[in-house]
Amino acid sequence: MLDNYSQQQKTMVNELENTFANGNHKSTVVDMQKDYANDDQICLTSVVFIPNEISKIITDKIINPLRAIEPMHYYYPPDSMHLTIKNIRTINKPPLFSQTDIEKTQNLYSKIIPKFQKFEFNVEDAVLFPTSLSVMAYSKDTLKDLVLSLDKGLKEIGVPDNKKYLSDSVFWGNITVCRFTQKPSQEFIHMAKQLRNLKIGKFNINKISLITCNAVCRSRQIIAEYSLV
User: Fold this and answer.
1) Rounded CA gap, 203 and 120, in Å?
2) To the nearest whole number, what is the mean pLDDT of the chain?
């Protein structure tokens, strides 16, 4: 049974899905590309990498059926699957951050993240977005407290998150599994919609990684990792 915050997360996902379906982009969307793997735009962000047992289920139940229909899209390999805890600067060339920004962020994260306890994500719901397909990850409100603490700290050190969000109080995990290289076919969309309410599994997050990477988490550099208590 979902707790209150998880239910709020699901409600916001439904709202986001509906706004995109109506052509109204209320949150930041990565532009469609032909060659995601070699894209040289980079971002600064903090993520949790997905455990092997969860990424394998995602590959078997979602990626493989969709790739069989349209192999031309970019499908995430297991070692790139992640969910973002807190974006800092979105992808761009040249980067929208400096080495000084990285160092200030490292210092901030080392003070904030170790104060938080480990918590669980429940992975389910494959959702179509304008240029991608993602699996959702729901949690208790520890995530909200963590994100708001990091957001406040980033503003105070002069490195505010530049991403646009649907809500400033309800956050959830978004595991992008496919980025489109062209508009998907109706057959692809039909299959994706059949996966809409798929349940994947649960996992605990023990650490958060501060990284730079491109839109599909390739050519990434792990700057630092921070353990939760």
Assistant:
1) 6
2) 95
Length of the chain counted residue by residue: 229
Residue 205, beta-bridge partner list: 119
CB 144 within 8 A of CB 171: yes
Write out the E strands in 139-190: 173-179
* Of the candidates 56, 72, 18, 28, the residue with the CA atom closest to the CA atom of residue 174: 28
CB 164 within 8 A of CB 45: no
Tokens matching residue 133: 């397909």
pTM for the whole structure: 0.93
| Run of H or E including 143 | helix 142-156
User: Measured between alpha carbons, how far is 102 from 58 in angstroms, rounded to an integer?
Assistant: 32
The edge-to-edge listing of strands for the beta sheet with 82-92 is: 82-92, 42-49, 207-213, 221-227
Correct CATH for 2-20+28-225 of 3.40.50.2000, 2.40.50.140, 3.90.1140.10, 3.40.50.2300: 3.90.1140.10
What are the pLDDT digits (tens) for 122-144? 999 999 999 999 999 999 999 99
Confirm if 39 and 214 have CB atoms less than 8 A apart.
yes
CA–CA separation, 13 and 166 (whole Å): 9
